[in-house]
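DEPOSITED CHAIN:
***
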Amino acid sequence: MLRPAFPLLATLLSLCCLTFDALADIKIGVIASSTGVTAVIGIPQKNTVSLLPTEIGGQKVEYVVLDDASDPTNAVTNVKKLLTEHKVDALIGPTTTPAALAILDFVAEAKVPLVTTVGSSAIVLPMDEKKKWVFKTTQNDDLIAEAVIEHMVASGIKTLGFIGFNDPYGENWYKVFAPMAEKAGLKIVANERFTRTDQSVIGQALKIIAAKPDAVFIAATGGPAVLPQATLLEKGYKGRLYQTHGVATNDFIRIGGAKVEGTLMAGGPMLVADDLPASNPIKAVAQGYIKAYDAKFGAGTTSTFGANTWDAGLLLQKAIPVALKKAQPGSAEFRAALREALEQTKELVGAQGVFNMTPQNHNGMDARARVMMTVKNGRWTLIQ
């Protein structure tokens, strides 16, 4: 008499298991340099994670945030922990290009999508079997360089000095920028490097000044980018000073003070959101992020680096529901479906630009993701 109950019991147990599987949390690992020399960039990235949704597509989302202390070696340790111990479904970060390049092999081997927030295009180009697992929310160097060079040419600049980090960030910038500048008729008359932890660049600055360039282009990020600019001014340089979007933060102005007044930069529109016309679709998204961040962390504390993490969250919010139709979180199938969904993103408006991904373009930004701006009266101001 009890025998008919056994199939029913088995069915109920099976349904319970399916229910538990359906309720599995999505785990997203985040690596940010919240301490160390690039903390000025990493702190807003870490802070922004607390603003990201804890439920997407009906599934709970857990964020596991680790600090690499601005050290690529620590980034590798962190990514191994996130992949093996936490078994994350996706990754956001890290903060620096050297760290991103250091973790690339591990991400590709594990086949986990990485939405990176670094500047260098080298992390996604040229596309190959490893880089197909990486997506990028910061403008590629060539997109920024194009706008900077156009401004230089329009300003009558003929000769340039270049100084950048002696690491993949600075080297990739020179690799991208130099041929574009030469094609536009600009001549680089001085080419120098420095490390992120240097306390002095007097020697490099004097060499640049001796070459008498009309302008100097500085390829650095965060607080360390202030050093060459301040040194050039202290030694009497009178030409124009351009920076990359690696200084797209109010902290750059706070650290540099009067020494960064007049800095010229092409960067994401979020930093000058209030100056954008109402017709620009990015304006509302950028202002929404600024309002949320400032409400939690203080007025005027937002930076484009935090916005890059916000946009990473927007990309995942769009892709995760698509992936959930194919597989459950925690599985290789889900991670593969998530990668495919990210790659199919079209016209997603973020705080930094509009994203259109393709199999060969895992950045997906166009000219809408950049504007020329300058530091005027202690704030970033749109150049109309």
About this structure: The CA atoms of residues 97 and 118 lie 5 Å apart.
